[in-house]
Write a structure and sequence with these properties.
Layout lengths: L17 H15 L13 E2 L10 E5 L5 E4 L6 E3 L3 H13 L5 E5 L5 H13 L5 E3 L2 E2 L9
Parallel strand pairs: 1-7, 2-5, 5-6
Antiparallel strand pairs: 2-3, 3-4
Helix pairs in contact: 2-3
Amino acid sequence: MRLKRRHESAAVIPTASMADIAFLLIVFFMVTITFEKDKTQVALPKTELRFEVPKEAAYISVTNNGQIRVTNGEHMSTPLDSIDDVVSFAANLVVEFPDRPVVLKADDNVPYRNIDEVIDSLKQAKVELIYLLSEQERVDTPSGG
């Protein structure tokens, strides 16, 4: 008696649900991602104490070469021509978003008089809450046993 040869199928990895998994991952990342509105790179001054900055905040960045960039927290940052433009930016910000805090992000080599001019401009525009951004310095305490 002759036996028929069995037809063997090759091993296959089921890929039907791969598209579903990829779609769910894309949706997950779209929902959880946050975009940084102000990408100005500055070397922040160091402090021992640092508070969390609210996510919904406007940013004013002062670079080492004196360039000022601003964002209202909704759009990407744009450069300003002079310190006088900070007052008009802040006044528009207070009108559009009355309770939005402003984060001042300045390079540690910027002279304090420039920072003081920006803070005075924000006060003149009646900004209620101003954060000065810094980098937290590690404080090493001796281990006392």
